[in-house]
From TrEMBL, chains A, B:
Keywords: Calcium, Hydrolase, Magnesium, Metal-binding, Phenylalanine catabolism, Tyrosine catabolism
Listed name of the protein: fumarylacetoacetase
Source organism (scientific name): Paracoccus tegillarcae
Gene3D superfamilies: Fumarylacetoacetase, N-terminal domain, Fumarylacetoacetase-like, C-terminal domain
Entry annotation: catalytic residues: H125
Enzyme class: hydrolase
Record: residues binding Mg(2+): D223, K243, T247
PANTHER family: FUMARYLACETOACETASE
Signal peptide boundaries: none
Binding site for Ca(2+): D118, E191, E193, D223
Amino acid sequence: MSLMRSWIESANSAKTDFPLNNLPYGVFDDGRGARMGVAIGDMILDVARVDHGLDHALFAAPEWNAVMAAGPKVWAALRARLTELLSDEAHRDAVEPHLIEVASARLLMPFRVSEYTDFYAGKNHAVNVGTMFRGAENALPPNWLSIPIGYNGRASSVVVSGTDVMRPWGQLKGPDEALPRFAPSARFDLELEMGAIVGQPSEGMVSVAEADQMIFGYVLLNDWSARDIQAWEYQPLGPFQAKATATTISPWIVTAAALEPFRTSTPERERDLLPYLREPSPMLYDIALEVGLTPEGRPETVIARTNYAQMYYSAAQQLTHHATSGCPMRVGDLLGSGTISGSEKDSRGSLLELSWGGKEPLALESGETRSFLEDGDRLTLRGAAEGDGYRVGFGDCTGVIRPARDLPNWAKE
Amino acid sequence: MSLMRSWIESANSAKTDFPLNNLPYGVFDDGRGARMGVAIGDMILDVARVDHGLDHALFAAPEWNAVMAAGPKVWAALRARLTELLSDEAHRDAVEPHLIEVASARLLMPFRVSEYTDFYAGKNHAVNVGTMFRGAENALPPNWLSIPIGYNGRASSVVVSGTDVMRPWGQLKGPDEALPRFAPSARFDLELEMGAIVGQPSEGMVSVAEADQMIFGYVLLNDWSARDIQAWEYQPLGPFQAKATATTISPWIVTAAALEPFRTSTPERERDLLPYLREPSPMLYDIALEVGLTPEGRPETVIARTNYAQMYYSAAQQLTHHATSGCPMRVGDLLGSGTISGSEKDSRGSLLELSWGGKEPLALESGETRSFLEDGDRLTLRGAAEGDGYRVGFGDCTGVIRPARDLPNWAKE
């Protein structure tokens, strides 16, 4: 596929994340209240104000949940109409008054997260972490090649790009300590992931093909993780407060429709999957990803470059597995892919892996090193599918680490 | 405290769950639409129709979330006004037209569950399960005496008493099998718990005293559990589909205010708690609990009798721990206590424990035995705090096990 041209010139650049081929959905506030918007080049279209051809009730609340709930026919109709409005000069006079410069707006959460599930479906990540914690011979848990392993996270802690992240307090116990202390996490980390947004509900089981059609779109996702809290708390029932401080998502929902030309297959199976998990067609996407780390007042270092195609399980497979027990899935559910690490050292999606548990601190361009995150560090995830002379990008997914809050008196010894 | 008398005679019986001392909050439908109700004796008060003295907007949706969000002063004002309306004969003529017989109404979910967290905070249960899975010497995980261990569950699967529960499908792998099968759970179980409902939000840490004030009320809770799905899936990230089929709650929210006379302390600490988890005053409640199992067409057997006072950690401690990492807590969050087992064999709150992992099938009064649940079994949780000549009860929390759905063609070999 090649670039689709718009009468908005900035959308025709090979460098913009937001050509006409993309049309991602977000929520913005330019000082006149929160509204639903569509990114196009350097502009945001105030979508409720144009002749979109849909029921106005879908745009009543500043969140994309109602449009998602309206279903795939509405999704297709809106995309077709927006493409028409933004490609055909004939609509320019009617549409132009409803364009706002991205630079003048604050981007808000694009949808209301119903529930948040995080998976562990990148094989390189699972092997790396397993090797560190259990040794190379027991790196992959016995169920890993059969189950897209997931756990429920906390929807209330999902925030949009640009939100500061406070270093968490928690129970920590070093290997040589008899008892835990209550202290700020000293091993606070990022996780480079993609998030899939469930746009249609289910009752009962759904096939992988059905699950794929239920997914409305994707975001970049940083699942901030306190490794020291996790080490002490996670047995036997899994991570809890280690993952509850914040999960940052990018501000634009890139629709499955926009990513369609970039479909690619999950890797060959090392163990046959059970029939319910088999994929009838390619269900991953070729999306180049990178992580930048910027110490306060210093230049950025890109610490990892990888690709969403590294996943062992697709979001559709995760969604299918999620519903096996009869678990109802809902509009606005967010599924984190799991950390996306490539096979090379500089393609690892977490500092835990990049510094090998802190044993090999990572050298930054500023001359500093990092084992885990320091206060003031800015993390930026970026991602884009590369077309012929254009790219379908996500916009930055950033967060700055702020110092732990003061300990309240009641929590002191 | 003694019985508070109402002009509704059925509320003055020592046997009713719902005397004037209780005034629990639910949602009902008598054929004229879902509305908010208050149980009193054999009747439900259609609370929005009486002179409740509050903003009518709090009663606009058939759920108690808006009242919860309005805060403790509103909670106290409503309780005081309802007590006045239902005790003083002078209000009888105005109130009586808005009473509906419980028997003529269907009870619905009393509130919208924001997120659901399940804990593992009953020590007898943790020791029993740990002994079965890891041996008596390693029964309690090292962190158990320091952390009220919890994991995030699935809010979408919480249902109200009376909802049928379909036996789940899932990946099962026996100890002698090389690979998993996809099959209906053969070790489907109940878990007797209490649920605490968060009525006020938080940002940042909250003390145990603050957490206690944030809790609006309590329900009985049955956390249905597929032990065989859990055994294969739960390492390393905890239970997922094993706990996602359904969680049943009782239909009435018994407020913290109604339970106030029944406060009791958590047991003596076997290891000092970190300061943030210490309780300034008694935070558990003396609530007698029982579980009845009724095979289809047969008489009921009460298979367990225990008490909420058996918990090692209170709901307030759980809530405090939940917020340590900065995790925002929200109105409508539901916290499951964890399975409440006493120290005696007949006080264990799950079949896993009662049948000791299936090795000692439980004899029922019908002459049958049970290791795990059979299709057609009706499970009923009951609970009440016993006052002087009255009881503050929860109403039945029931569910009937239905056969697993037919396997869709796409999931067959």
